[in-house]
Input
Amino acid sequence: MLTIVAISYFLLFVLFFQSSIDKIINWKDNYTWLQDYFSKTFLNRFTKFNLLVITILELTSALMCICCFLGVILYISFIHNYPGILVLTNILCSITLLFLFTGQRIAKDYLGAVRIIPYFILILVLTCLLYYSFGA
Output
């Protein structure tokens, strides 16, 4: 059971870390693309701020996921004595996905929004596994 939890956190780490690093390295390209993406919405005026917020959320989610992965895989007592940190990580990851999902819905990119749903399902299953494993 804990192996599935660890793998799930590693998958979420890869998802958020790659995305946040891409935004940092290719900031100008991402900013230009997002200006066009949100050009017909009210979010166009806030593109730079939104990109910064999403980048910070994704990077923070990635760092928390790798900490949870290591905590579960190495059986670090802090994680096992205080599993609430795992739940907080799930909440932060859900908020990050919710921001992305909302932006895609506002931009009327319905197919893009649908592609985020499996990650929400993963976090829901992961949360259920945490309650089953730790009683968090």
Remarks:
- The chain has a mean pLDDT of 92.
- The CA atoms of residues 91 and 123 lie 9 Å apart.
